[in-house]
Amino acid sequence: MSELPKAYEPVSVEEKWYQRWIDHKCFHADETSDRPAYSMVIPPPNVTGILHLGHVLNNTIQDILARRARQKGHEVLWLPGTDHAGIATQAKVERHLRQTEEVTRRDLGRDEFLKRIWDWKDEHGGIIIKQLKRLGCSCDWERERFTMDPEYSKWVSQVFVDLFKEGHIYRGKRMVNWCPSSLTALSDEEVISKPQNSKLYFMKYELADSPGEFLEISTTRPETLMGDTAVAVNPKDERFSKYVGRTVKRPFPEGEIPVIADDHVDIEFGTGALKITPAHDKADFEIGQRHHLPLIEVITADGKIDCPEVEALHGLDRFAARKKAAEILEEKGLLLKIEDYENNVGYSERADVVVEPRISMQWFLKYPSVEEATAAVENSEITFRPQKWSKTYSHWMENLQDWCISRQLWWGHQIPVWYRQSKAQDLQAAESLDAQDLERGDIYVGVTPPEDESEWVRDDDVMDTWFSSWLWPFATMANVGEESETLKKFYPTSDLVTGPDIIFFWVARMIMAGYRFKGELPFKNVFFTSIIRDGKGRKMSKSLGNSPDPLDLMEKYGADGLRFGLMRIAPIGSDVKFDETQIEEGRNFANKLYNACRFRQMQEEPPNHKIFTAVEISALPPYHIDILSKLDELDVKLEKSYKDYRFNEVVAHLYDFFWGDYCDHFLEAVKGDLKEGASPQRRRDTLHTIDIVLKRYLAQLHPLMPHITEELSEKMGYLPEGAFLMTREFRKDSILGNAEAFRAEHAEAVYAAASNLRNLKAEYQLAANKNVRFVIRPVAGWVMNELPTLALLVGAKEVVVDSSYEAEQGTPASLTSLGEVLMPLDGLIDIEAESKRLGKEIEKIEKELAKSEQKLSNPHFVDRAKPEIVAVEKERLAQWQEKLSQLQNMKNALQV
RNA sequence: GCAGGAGUAGCUCAGUGGUAGAGCAUCUCGUUUACACCGAGGCGGUCGGGGGUUCAAGUCCCUCCUCCUGCACCA
After folding, report:
1. Of the candidates A163, A178, A175, A310, which has an alpha carbon nearest to the alpha carbon of residue A251?
2. Which nucleotide in the DNA or RNA is closest to residue A762, CA to C1'?
3. 3-class DSSP state for residue A72?
């Protein structure tokens, strides 16, 4: 045992233990072990990402689960890794290159650019991993994976090939969400709609066959006018029926376009007539298909107007063109009015720019195993916690759209499709392409390139990042075509811990992939964490700068403090507002624990590891039995809370037991046993009890606060030389055998009485005065033994029984569970004050009594309530009555 | 528009039909064999509003209000 400094210093301790755990391979999962398996895969953070509070919450929960599982004797695999995060990473590196070397990716070329990204990844890719380690995450780092590892990439290609061959993947020209900043297609899930203040333009088109007659149209996008190939009205709209089938004049470039009727048009909206731009609007595209309208593209990939016929607009940015187009209409006298209008506009998730609906050639996936995956959650083969998310899941699964899986990026898994050189141009422009095209031998689809590669041209596109992430649970455990021992032992995984914001992106798709490629569910439980918000309820985001840096928090409060504080406030099922004082509480708790252990160490006696015998227990003072029984209860409570994944409850149990039951009550009550002159037997028993409690408690707390518990277990000598707390199996044996039998009512009574007397002292401004004496009229003989402890707890000189004591009139008195207690004030007595005080107390009791009486006088209550409830109420009433009469006697005695 | 949450002390949150809770903040007192990152005590609640079911409602039902989150619409 060594000396401990006065305040706990977490940072160095945490670093030390993490290194030791690593050095001793404590996190390693042994796939040949006989122990039951427990496994999780980490939601892979972006490889160039930086740890934020969401990661902290998420990974703390996983670490708690992993460490708890180890303690319960499982062989634990927590498999870590990172995600290549296609768009995010490529955008980051492109920006970097622009700023430092003033070059674009096209300047460098595909190969060189990719080399630069790999360099960047090597340099920055480790940051978030280091940060997770700082947090104490017990991942098996020897198994760390990256979604672009060669073996992992093979999986991605293999899955593409399989799905293509069975007809689930096809290529086609479709209207997709296009990001003009990243210059790639996006999936529907990557588009976020935001309300926006825009304008609604009202304009008129002249009827071609009737000069001077106009059709009024409203639009938010006049800049797409050049792409209009029709005007549509609702067939039921009588105002416009006379126009259907005729043509109107498009103002620029001048042309005639038909007026058509389509149900999609909302009669109520605007003028009721809708301009149709099939090339730049999803709904218009569909209308265009129905009516066989031509497609005219007038916007380029990077969001500029492409329409040489209209010189004033050609080359302008789409938003500048909007204003300009309105001006031109105005000049032509075709603009009627402009109204303010709030509508929802789709933004790209990553680049945060307005998405442009655009026709382009893309690869799509028809999801496999949809029915099975939907059913799995509905019939609880997979449990979602909180349950409410299963509705979100079902709703999405029932409205599945084909997944656009191709991205016009360079960073990612390239589509494993090759076109025969001689026909490449035609094939790449072909309207559609699917499994049937394979048979003709014009395309090649495979995990490895075709033999005579020079005769083939590979598809340029890469795949959506999530097309690799959805394989994560199994692709990390075995290579393609292998049945590795790891996979056999640890797949399917036990739990998945992730944020509800990626139910569609990731969770749902993993379930489908698990079914399709491994024939079973990838996990049994999904725990969705809360979303952490700032004090104003806003999402944490980089742009708002409202996200505290977890590294700073760990520096200030320790990783353990951060973990504990965060888990304490993270509710299940709703968002949590972040509050740094809660993290401070975590640190304070660590300090409390540390000092309680320091107190034990100051006794300078080695720990006692024996367990009390039944005989020894029966001889222990009530405080000892009380704390030992509560220690047993703690096991039971924790077990239940863990079972329900109620981590905030776990923390509350651990906190209350230690701070309240152990420190405030037990430790204060037994300090007398450690004083000089106390009986040696009593001292030994007390230290022994302390050791039993601390040793077990440190193990109980370990999943939440791994570092400090490991540190203290070692320092206190609770572990064999060289052993680790984290790898030690935790035996749940009861200390007392049967806690119920040992319920220590006497201890509870003493604690309650102490509270009464402290209260009395405080009322008379004597809280700090240790010379106060109390005279007690005990209710039972056993009370005599506990008087010194009572005095200690109250901070009084003594509590004595003095049958000859004659209280002066007006002596303050309290009715405690141990008996009536007087507090002689030697001359400073104020009868009126004491009478008033007692009067107040009586008033309170009367209120409670009245409530109780009312309840019991209600015949319905007595008849219908459960008997035990009635019995409790009766007992309560009796207690109030007794207490009231005693207090009244005391008050009466004051009046001479 | 549809769906799902949330609303409890000044703040952050527990509360699983049966006496409304914790921590922080605030106020008073206090260095005692650990801890001032501490101890003791106090103040502080019409449990969002209204209605209903029940012997009994913060808890169950209906309704309204406010906020959040998805999804849809979004000319």
Report:
1. A310
2. B41
3. coil
